[in-house]
Amino acid sequence: MYEQVGKVDAVINAAGRAHFDAVTDMTPELNDIGIDSKLKGQVNLVLLGFDNMNDGGSYTLTTGVMMDDPIAKGASAALANGGVRAFVKAAAIEMPRGIRINSVSPNVLQESIHKFGTLFQGFDAVPVRRVVLAFEKSVFGLQTGQNFEVY
């Protein structure tokens, strides 16, 4: 991606997979889905992008509600989300050239509750427009090392 795009002012990542299963049915291989995709994928996006990020640029990664409000079958996803949040907080103090890094932690979205509703029973789904505002705050604000929660 960086080779095709060149220099950038901001990168937002809202991609990443995780396996949802009971912890007693989880295997190391299934757990690796979230670690490789959701956690390492986002961390590597930052690590590989320093040369393409303009001075004062911004990285925004995505976590999720499950790391703070666990759901059944969500331990692996919570692990990946928590790892991303920890990376953001720790990396912020070492980012070069005024580059900032934050994460956005949305609740389940109204637009996808039909697909994930059985996993998130009792959750107050949020509209995607509110999550977009958190991404905008991360990109255009001055904060770094923050996890913007949208609940």
Automatic annotation (TrEMBL):
The keyword Ion transport does not apply. Keywords: Oxidoreductase. Pfam families: adh_short_C2. PANTHER family: DIHYDROANTICAPSIN 7-DEHYDROGENASE. Belongs to the short-chain dehydrogenases/reductases (SDR) family. This is NAD(P)-dependent dehydrogenase (Short-subunit alcohol dehydrogenase family). It comes from Sporosarcina psychrophila (Bacillus psychrophilus).
